[in-house]
Design goal:
binds adenosine-5'-triphosphate, single chain, 20% strand, 628 residues, binds magnesium ion, 28 strands
């Protein structure tokens, strides 16, 4: 924790930068109102603000009684659930440092993170998470304790060992490690007096280091990024303001809280006194949206792509007439939204057609999302322009944001009603942006990280003496001050013909086709571009049914010649809207899905391009062997 910069606030006088106090302020305003809702199966669990406060204080009591010190790291490994938020609040309340951990990462990465962070306490969701953690945790400290929120976990899908149910009692523990359930953990705190807890809460200093978030490791190994509570509160305030977040908003989080953007959105909601709605799982399901009726929905582009497919299916079903009607209505909607984005009003005739389109079909899209959504937010990766245009055409305000873990996740955001499609919007209030001579985006503001954990050299390499964070992304400003991200600096491809190509944009363009689940564009030092494609199983199944191809299994079917020809046509069609040096001349279909476990994807489902290119280097080389 060498780089933390605790604020110099005297004990007994908690600073306004204190996360726990910010939560308490919201909780005091409406103690009986709902703070968080979670869907679990067909059930809905609700907690009020006073309920969350009470639960967090009980956890804080156990943390103190267990001897957790101010500034001490505490691991947190769970899916997005109420207990996660409660634990996060409790850790903040006692001034400890939460270290979220994604146990779906490859074991070797988990071991590096666990080995370096020096924690001796881990709060985990259930037996499956506990097992992964115990297995990967090197014995850096004696007397390690794992607390599981659930004693027994049951899953819909079996794990790689064919198990769907696991109990804590089935786990083998190494020497010096203990494992208890939530009930036993609460009894740990029972002995602590109220006075001792109060004293601890008062001695906590605001503004200092509060969490270490690991980056997605898209470009290399994950790096621990230190956030102070001052930075997180600044970010939550700025994001809340940009979104005009109010108490009557309901924010639906279908994202893992290990993802910096999701974490910031959760704190933004808590600070603004809005409601959080947590669906089960990581997909944006129509069923959840319809039931939970959120007003704000943050997501990553992959989730938004899948949601668009589901909505289209729901609205047009399989009928040809409805499909044609939808086609017409979307074209009208696109015309209107394009005019609006250029600051112009539609003419009377277009307005009339748009009203008809909305009444006949377009109105069904917002209704399918519960009818209250006022903004969807896309972050974490480039949003395909076509997809953004489609959302706007059907009357849904999709706002793209940009940032990185090193700046508390979000530096820019399109504003409600002012999305500039193809850009990531304007900076949040208080965030400065500059473009370096080589095009790199530089950021400065109170949301910049304190530093990389235990890595002063790494920190100095990205934050210069004037406080600018060098993002590693290339960007440019549009006419109205909105930022456009070109690509990551290190990912820009220079072909042997000297053309510079931004692969992320082409990949997003290819992935906008429903059949392509993931695309990796290759071409550094080559005469032209090629791509590795992984297919989406659902449209593939539909295609096989239409063509009478027996669907044996995914690897087998993805090698079928008719499937290859179908994908070839998709690529030809996609190539038509690319400049000639950006077109894909050769491609191969990968006969498996890219996964997080195999190290191909980040936890937010972004491609780890270097790792994939290494795995398939022979195949990529073979594209260029005959040299044309
Ligand atoms: N709207 C966006 N458009 C394009 N790229 C984006 C957008 N939002 C985020 N990004 C990309 O995501 C990066 C931030 O991601 P994050 O901090 O989660 O980890 P990472 O950079 O993917 O991982 P690592 O730093 O470990 O390689 C940004 O630097 C940028 O490249
Ligand atoms: Mg990064």
């Amino acid at each position: 924790m060498s780089n933390s910069k605790p604020a110099a606030t005297a004990p007994g006088a908690p600073s306004p930068d204190d996360l726990w106090l910010a939560f308490e302020r919201s909780a005091r305003r409406r103690p009986g109102a709902t703070c968080v809702i979670r869907r679990s199966g067909e059930d809905e669990l609700r907690e009020t603000w006073s309920g969350v406060r009470r639960l967090a204080l009980a956890q804080a009591r156990s943390l103190c009684a267990h001897g957790v010190q101010g500034g001490e790291p505490v691991l947190l490994a769970a899916e997005t659930r109420i207990e996660w938020l409660v634990a996060d609040l409790a850790i903040a309340a006692v001034g400890a440092v939460s270290v979220p951990l994604d146990v779906t990462l490859p074991r070797s990465e988990l071991t590096v993170i666990l080995g370096s962070c020096g924690a001796r306490l881990a709060l985990v969701s259930g037996a499956f998470e506990a097992e992964r953690l115990i297995d990967a945790w090197p014995a850096t400290t004696e007397d390690r304790l794992v607390v599981a929120f659930d004693a027994e976990t049951q899953r819909e899908r079996s794990d790689r060992r064919g198990r769907r149910r696991l109990h804590l009692s089935e786990l083998q523990l190494p020497p010096g490690m203990r494992l208890i359930d939530a009930a036993a953990w609460l009894t740990v705190g029972a002995s602590l007096t109220d006075a001792a807890l109060d004293e601890r809460l008062l001695s906590r200093r605001g503004g200092g280091l509060t969490t270490i978030i690991h980056t997605a490791a898209t470009t290399g190994a994950p790096r621990g990024v230190q956030w102070t509570s001052a930075a997180l509160l600044f970010e939550a305030g700025a994001l809340g303001k940009a979104l005009q977040l109010q108490q009557d908003d309901r924010v639906m989080l279908a994202l893992p809280l290990t993802f910096a953007f999701a974490r910031v959105v959760a704190w933004t909601s808590l600070c603004a006194g809005a409601e959080l709605a947590l669906p089960e799982g990581k997909t944006l399901r129509l069923n959840d949206l319809a039931r939970l009726q959120p007003t704000i929905v943050p997501a990553v582009p992959r989730q938004l792509e899948a949601l668009a497919v589901a909505m289209r299916q729901l609205v047009h079903g399989h009928g040809n007439v409805r499909r044609r009607l939808l086609h017409w209505a979307t074209a009208v909607g696109t015309e209107v939204s394009q005019l609006r984005h250029q600051g112009e009003a539609p003419t009377g005739w277009l307005r009339a057609r748009n009203a008809a389109a909305a009444a006949m079909v377009l109105g069904r899209f917002p209704a399918a999302l519960g009818g209250r959504v006022r903004a969807l937010i896309s972050g974490g990766a480039p949003l395909p322009v076509e997809l953004a245009e489609w959302y706007h055409a059907v009357g849904l305000d999709l706002l793209e944001g940009y940032g990185l873990t090193e700046c508390c996740a979000c530096a820019t955001l399109a504003r409600p009603g002012f999305a500039r499609i193809g850009t990531v919007g304007r900076p949040l209030d208080g965030v400065e942006i500059a473009i370096a001579e080589d095009g790199e985006v530089l950021l400065r503001g109170a949301n910049i990280m304190a530093g990389y954990d235990r890595d002063p050299e790494g920190t100095a390499a990205v934050i210069d003496d004037d406080g600018w964070l060098h993002t590693g992304d290339v960007g440019e400003f549009g006419v109205d001050g909105a930022l456009r991200i070109v690509d990551r600096k290190g990912d820009l491809i220079r072909t042997s013909g000297g053309k510079s190509v931004a692969p992320a944009r082409i990949e997003a363009h290819l992935q906008a086709s429903p059949v392509i689940a993931a695309a990796l564009v290759h071409g550094e030092g080559r005469p032209w571009l090629s791509a590795l494609l992984s297919l989406d199983e659902r449209p593939l199944k539909r295609f096989c049914a239409e063509k009478d191809i027996a669907y044996t299994d995914f690897p087998e079917v993805s090698k079928h010649p008719l499937v290859y020809r179908m994908v070839e046509r998709v690529i030809e069609e996609r190539n038509r809207s690319l400049a000639s040096f950006e077109t894909i001349r050769k491609f191969a279909i990968i006969d498996r899905e890219f996964t997080i476990e195999d190290g191909d994807l980040t936890p937010t489902l972004e491609l780890r391009r270097a790792a994939i290119a290494r795995k398939y280097s022979k195949l990529l080389d073979s594209f260029y062997e005959d040299g044309y």
